[in-house]
Write a structure and sequence with these properties.
Distance between the termini: 56 Å
Order of helices and strands: EHEEHEHEHHEHEEEEEEEHEEHHEHEEH
Largest sheet: 9 strands, antiparallel
CATH superfamily of the largest domain: ATP-grasp fold, B domain
Oligomer: single chain
Mean pLDDT: 94
CATH class of the largest domain: Alpha Beta
Number of strands: 18
Strand content: 25-35%
Bound molecules: adenosine-5'-diphosphate
Helix content: 25-40%
Shape: globular
Length: 379
């Protein structure tokens, strides 16, 4: 019976907390491990373990009596997960998949070897090594490990910029003239059946390399949407994935589609599925790791999702006022993560706006973004 299964999530952030919410609907017993004792999940389960998902002993100790382990972030100890898997614990996604995805260059090599188009790039060891590649500039430099939310990405225009480059293993990628950034959440079950959620269009703030808002359905050509889904399916098959995965893609100005990045777990670009789809990405992940039937991925209503970021101190009151308006607006759904305040730019929550058509959803989104930014700051 489901209630007898012991499930563990590595990572206790907002993605873990949203997974927990759906785990309750299935009557599951879920433990969570995170190195921060004030991570969002800590307040939602009594089985919260304070430990480091990157630490071998902590992961072994956490996982040894569990039936199933899943993740909400890729920064986890692969060696420990392999050991647990050999001892009979089911690990989804598999340690092999997490290993491929943890390193951006290995990820790129894997995709290329499977004939999935990627942005050409070379591995560089450190800042010194970068000087051998001045001929490749301008280019995009990405940390191989632990980059997220654009924090491990910089554009190097000229050799002079190398002074400020990351001094660690990176990938130096060709600069793409990006027309659109798209994400497809793909789900694959234990028997190999695959379904895709509708592609999402992600609109970025390029100054801060962070997501501004995202919309689903994406206003892209049908052909491009189909191609994006086909690439997501091909990637999930190549990885023999069990569970869900976000496949982030670039549509270049010349019409080429590239897979940029994979996240084999619930993802920011799937938040709208909570209210907009028949089965949310979180419910889907739980269904798939449990071996239950895959849920219907259909989109019910057009949706726009906005991340709420921790504002500068002088704009705090604007956020409080914005949240009140959000709560008073019909079919606008607030998710507040309960994270510690004070780190400017940190994701504190998100809002999903549903409407009968995308134009109306976008108008509401513009109004809400305006409120969240604080009227005086709107340019
Ligand atoms: P992260 O893992 O931090 O999200 P990404 O690889 O998604 O890193 O890059 C962050 C953003 O940087 C992308 O959303 C895109 O806007 C920009 N970017 C990344 N790679 C390139 C590239 N090769 N050319 C141009 N812009 C890029």
């Amino acid at each position: 019976m489901l209630e007898d299964l012991k499930i563990g999530i590595l990572g206790g952030g907002q993605l873990g907390a949203m997974l927990l919410k759906y785990a309750i609907d299935f009557g599951l017993h879920v433990s969570v491990m995170d190195k921060n004792s004030d991570a969002p999940c800590a307040r939602h389960t009594q089985s919260f373990i304070n430990g480091d998902p990157m630490n071998y002993d902590d992961v072994i100790h956490f996982g040894k009596d569990l039936d199933i382990i899943t993740i909400e972030k890729e920064a986890v100890n692969i060696r420990a997960l392999k050991f647990l898997q050999q001892s009979g614990v089911n690990v989804y996604p598999s340690p092999e998949v997490i290993g491929i995805i943890q390193d951006k260059f290995i990820q790129k090599q894997f995709l290329a070897a499977n004939h999935i188009p990627v942005v050409p790039g070379v591995p560089v060891l450190n800042r010194e090594d970068l000087r051998n590649y001045t001929g490749n500039l301008p280019a995009c430099l990405k940390k191989c490990n632990n980059g997220y939310d654009g924090k491990g990405v910089i554009v190097l225009k000229t050799a002079a910029d190398i002074e400020n480059a990351f001094d660690e293993p990176c990938v130096l990628e060709e600069l793409v003239d990006i027309k659109h950034e798209i994400s497809v959440i793909v789900s694959r079950n234990q028997e190999g059946a695959i379904e895709c959620y509708d592609p999402v269009l992600m609109v970025f703030n390029h100054e801060r390399m962070i997501l501004d808002f995202q919309m689903c359905p994406a206003n892209i050509d049908r052909d491009v949407a189909l191609q994006a889904c086909n690439l997501a399916v091909k990637t999930a098959e190549a990885l023999k994935l069990v569970g869900i995965m976000a496949v982030e893609l670039f549509l270049a100005a010349d019409g080429k589609l590239y897979v940029n990045e994979l996240a084999p777990r619930p993802h920011n670009s799937g938040h709208h599925t909570i209210e907009a789809n028949i089965t949310s990405q979180f419910e889907q992940q739980i269904r798939l790791i449990l071996g239950l039937p895959m849920g219907d991925t259909k989109l019910n209503k057009p949706a726009v999702m906005i991340n709420i970021l921790e504002p500068a101190a002088h704009r705090k009151s604007a956020i409080t006022a914005a949240l009140r308006t959000i709560l008073c607006t019909s079919d606008v759904h607030l998710h507040w993560y309960g994270k510690k305040a004070g780190i400017e730019g940190r994701k504190m929550g998100h809002v999903t706006i549903l409407e009968n058509n995308m134009d109306n959803a976008l108008s509401k989104a513009v109004m809400i973004r305006h409120l969240l930014k604080g009227k005086n700051d709107e340019k």
